[in-house]
Design a protein that fits this description.
Layout lengths: L1 H15 L19 E11 L12 E15 L4 E13 L9 E12 L1 E16 L11 E15 L5 E14 L7 E13 L4 E14 L4 E16 L2 E14 L2 E16 L2 E13 L17 E15 L4 E14 L8 E14 L4 E13 L5 E14 L4 E14 L6 E13 L1
Length: about 425
């Protein structure tokens, strides 16, 4: 693997070395509809703000939010910048870490021409430390995820293109430095357009995953093929590949796949998706209820979902329903696999009454089985209404109910939550 490691480092240095020294833009280069800054303030009240199964405490929380979006487009150059920052403060808090901030941002810049793209992103997320425990705030911490990457597209004909991509990812945890992780990866792909409606792509990817504690390093190679396109009712994608992993003297392998097809028939939209891929536990988590991880490791993640969407009243009334199942499986080094499973249903009804009023109703239910066979059930419902005071200013009121049950350790709780939000966009 040392040979591949050297190639990876050389490719990373070459592609990352061509960064722009400066850039200037005139007012005519900017698209006003893409440029805005938004300020928002939320006042939250809860009858069980610490999500406790006993001694429920009423409390309030203030949240301030700033969102910035900027885009500039020239004939051969695009620049995109966005950032969202949130800061929360709890009144009369009994917890030391009650004040925290989270957010995400991304910067994308074409270099020299549209085929050479540099991107950098950051996300700070608050997440649950131990899913076997209740969702108390003292069972949560923050993680910073940094990603820097470079794309180089080489179109050598109207139907063929080669792409090179290098990426460095870094995860940093506020209170759990032992979980810090880093990943370097490089991939090359060849895209061939079969016709106006379909295309074929082959990809080779090599990556190094390094964990702080226990100190260990994984080397991964992945070969994949993908066929995608459009048809009369929608889009489709079929992909299959294989991953080879080496950790010290241990070698492992597994199959990955990705299948997706959707169909729109008049006011109805149907979508089915299933995929299996190798993931790094330290980089996971798009929401606070991602399946847990107690050790730094590579995981096989299998996700499947069915989505049904129905639009009524000239698309002013929209219904979304989603059934899903997620399975995480540790890599089998000594035939000792462990798995975590989650399945659930999500339903949402959105009604645009008129230009000023919008109503939203949703309900979510999930059932997770953790590594130690512990069962965790969760139900959440929400009703919200938004009123546009003007094109730039709106106020939103919402009420939600949350219930969680953990059978084995009786860490059950109920919470009723109210929120008032006012936002101004300039």
């Amino acid at each position: 693997m040392t040979h591949f490691s050297a190639i990876l480092r050389i490719l990373f240095v070459v592609l990352m070395g061509a960064l722009p020294l400066s850039s200037q833009a005139s007012a005519s280069d900017r698209a006003p509809q893409d440029n805005f800054i938004r300020f928002a303030l939320d006042y939250e009240h809860s009858n069980n703000i610490y999500k406790s199964n006993h001694n429920a405490e009423k409390n309030q929380r203030l949240k301030g939010e700033v969102e910035l979006n900027y885009k500039r487009k020239r004939q051969s150059n695009k620049l995109s910048l966005s950032y969202l920052a949130q800061y929360k403060d709890e009144s009369h808090s009994r917890l030391e870490n009650s004040n925290f901030w989270q957010g995400k941002g991304a910067f994308t810049q074409n270099i020299f021409n549209k085929n050479f793209v540099f991107a950098i992103s950051h996300q700070r997320q608050r997440f649950i430390i131990d899913q076997q425990q209740s969702d108390l705030d003292n069972n949560k911490t923050e993680r910073d995820l940094f990603v820097i990457e470079q794309y180089w597209h080489i179109p050598y004909s109207n139907r063929n293109r080669v792409s090179l991509h290098v990426q460095h990812s870094n995860a940093r945890f506020k209170d759990y430095k032992a979980k810090d992780s880093a990943q370097n990866s490089a991939d090359v792909s060849w895209l061939h357009k079969l016709n106006k409606k379909s295309q074929l792509q082959f990809t080779y990817r090599y990556s190094e995953n390094e964990f702080n504690e226990p100190s260990q390093r994984y080397y991964e190679q992945n070969f994949a093929a993908q066929y995608s396109g459009i048809y009369q009712f929608g889009e489709y994608l079929f992909g299959i590949g294989k991953s080879y992993v080496k950790k010290e003297q241990i070698k492992m392998e597994g199959l990955n796949y990705h299948f997706r097809i959707n169909a729109r028939i008049k006011a109805h939209l149907f979508s089915i998706e299933a995929q299996r891929a190798l993931s790094n536990s330290s980089f996971r988590g798009d929401n606070n209820y991602e399946l847990d991880f107690q050790e730094n490791q590579l995981l096989w993640s299998t996700e499947s979902a069915f989505l049904y969407e129905y639009a009524m009243l000239n698309e002013r009334l929209l219904s979304n329903n989603r059934l899903y199942q997620n399975i995480d499986e540790t890599m089998a080094e000594y035939n000792q696999k462990q798995s975590t499973k989650e399945k659930g249903i999500e339903s949402q009804l959105s009604w645009q009454l008129n230009k000023q009023w919008r109503l939203l109703v949703s309900a979510d239910y999930s059932h997770a089985t953790l590594y130690n066979s512990m069962h965790k059930k969760r139900f959440e419902s929400l009703i919200a209404g938004r009123f546009n005071l003007s094109s730039a200013l709106y106020i939103e009121l919402s009420a939600s109910y949350e219930n969680e049950k953990t059978k084995e350790n009786n860490k059950n709780y109920n919470e009723t939550h109210y929120n008032t939000r006012i936002a101004y966009t300039y």
